[in-house]
Design a protein that fits this description.
- This protein has about 220 residues and is α/β, with parallel strands linked by helices.
- The chain has a single domain, classed as Vaccinia Virus protein VP39 (Rossmann fold, 3-Layer(aba) Sandwich), CATH 3.40.50.
- It is about 35% helix and about 25% strand.
- The chain contains eight helices and seven strands.
- Helix 4 links the parallel strand 1 and strand 2.
- Helix 2 runs parallel beside helix 5 and helix 3 packs across helix 4.
C-alpha cells in the first residue's frame, strides 16, 4: 500500500485547537503566525486543496444578485476570493472577514477584495440584513474553528432574498458538531431553501472531503 505524502504545514495543523467556538485567541495567534506560509502550504501537492474552487463553482452556478457583493466569510489569505473572481467573474465585488489580522494582511495584497475586516464568526456579525448577494465560507467550518451556531444563521441573515450561501463543512464535523441539525432548523423556519449537501473534494491529495452546502435565502 502506498502511504500518503506528508502534509505541508503539518506543525501548524497539529496546533489547531480541538474545540470549535471556544478558543478564538489561540486560533487567531496560530493563523497570524502561519499567514506568511499559508498559501504555499495549502497549495502544496501534498494537500491538493480544491475547496475554494469547488465553492466558487457552486456560487457561479447560482449566480450573484445584480448590484450586490459576495461576502467571503473566514477569508483567510484570500484563496477563496481569488477563486470567486476567477470562476464567477472578474467584475464581481468581494468583501472579506476573518479572525486573523495577519491573514487579512496577506489577503489585502491579492487586490481582489473591496474591503477586508476582522471578525469572529463564532459571534454575530456587524453587518446589516440582506447586504450581500452571496456568502461563501471555505475552510472555516471544521475542527477547532467555527461551529454551526450562530455562523450559519448569520450567513443567511446577511444574504439578500434569492441570494446563495455556499459553505464547505468538513465531513468529519457535519453531524458530529450539529451542522446538519442547524441547516434543517433554518429550513424548517423558512429562512433558507437547501439546494445541496453533497460531498465534494476538499483536500484531494489527502482524500479529505467536505459537505458542499448550498442554500438559497428565502
Amino acid at each position: 500500500m502506498t502511504s500518503k505524502p506528508p502534509q505541508a504545514g503539518q506543525a501548524f495543523f497539529d496546533r489547531i485547537p480541538s474545540q470549535s467556538n471556544a478558543e478564538a485567541d489561540k486560533c487567531r495567534d496560530l493563523y497570524d503566525e502561519w499567514a506568511s506560509a499559508y498559501d504555499q502550504d495549502l497549495q502544496h501537492e501534498s494537500h491538493g486543496y480544491v475547496g475554494p474552487q469547488e465553492a466558487a463553482r457552486a456560487v457561479a452556478k447560482h449566480g450573484v444578485k445584480d448590484g450586490l457583493a459576495v461576502l467571503d466569510a473566514g477569508c483567510g489569505t484570500g484563496l477563496s476570493g481569488v477563486a470567486v473572481k476567477e470562476v464567477v467573474g472578474a467584475d464581481v465585488v468581494v468583501d472579506g472577514v476573518d479572525l486573523s489580522t495577519g491573514m487579512l494582511e496577506v489577503a489585502r495584497k491579492k487586490n481582489v477584495y473591496r474591503k477586508l475586516e476582522a471578525a469572529d464568526l463564532s459571534k454575530p456579525l456587524g453587518i446589516e440584513d440582506g447586504a450581500y448577494g452571496a456568502v461563501v465560507c471555505v475552510g472555516t467550518l471544521t475542527e477547532g474553528h467555527v461551529g454551526p451556531v450562530p455562523a450559519l444563521r448569520e450567513f443567511a441573515r446577511v444574504t439578500a432574498s434569492g441570494g446563495v450561501i455556499v459553505a464547505t463543512i468538513k465531513e468529519s464535523v457535519w453531524k458530529n458538531e450539529g451542522h446538519d441539525m442547524e441547516v434543517q432548523r433554518l429550513e424548517r423556519e423558512g429562512a433558507v431553501r437547501v439546494q445541496s449537501t453533497a460531498l465534494a473534494p476538499y483536500r484531494a491529495a489527502q482524500d479529505v472531503k467536505a459537505v458542499l452546502l448550498t442554500m438559497v435565502k428565502t
